[in-house]
Amino acid sequence: MSDLASSFTHLNAAGQPAMVDVGAKTPTRRLARARSRVVLGADILKLVQAGDLPTRKGPVFQTAILAGIMAAKKTADLIPLCHPLGLDDCQIQIEVQEPDAIHIICTATVTGKTGVEMEALTGASVAALTVYDMCKAMSHDIVIQETRLLDKTGGKNDFHHAG
């Protein structure tokens, strides 16, 4: 296996996919925050700024919040090598970004042996996809522009995005 491949934690010595064994690790309080940016367009954003935009499928922001939380709780079912975690908490915030976008921030916490980055990223991503799904009747120019990890704490290496 190459030096680069040996740095991947989810590959065994033969280079095959493998779950990381966290059995010997001590549980710690872990937190991760992730953000998805959704460019709705100025016209749709104006509609949502007056209050949550109702659609035939229901209220956009409330539905996206619920979808994001549900997705974070199901991350291990979606991402093959993620450990199943019993989240202590998961919160979704939606912030308006003038002139035409929103930020969806998912914060996930757990007391456990492995981090919650994937849960936070999954929650933010699915909330963004839900906003797209609910608003696509108004425009197909909506763009999910970026999903990124903002912070993680409580593990071997803490991380904070400096941007």
TrEMBL record:
Pathway: Cofactor biosynthesis; molybdopterin biosynthesis. Residues 19-155 form the Molybdopterin cofactor biosynthesis C (MoaC) domain. GO terms for molecular function: cyclic pyranopterin monophosphate synthase activity; GTP 3',8'-cyclase activity. It comes from the Bacteria. One of its GO terms (biological process) is Mo-molybdopterin cofactor biosynthetic process. Keywords: Lyase, Molybdenum cofactor biosynthesis. It is an enzyme of class 4 (lyase). Catalyzes the conversion of (8S)-3',8-cyclo-7,8-dihydroguanosine 5'-triphosphate to cyclic pyranopterin monophosphate (cPMP). This is cyclic pyranopterin monophosphate synthase.
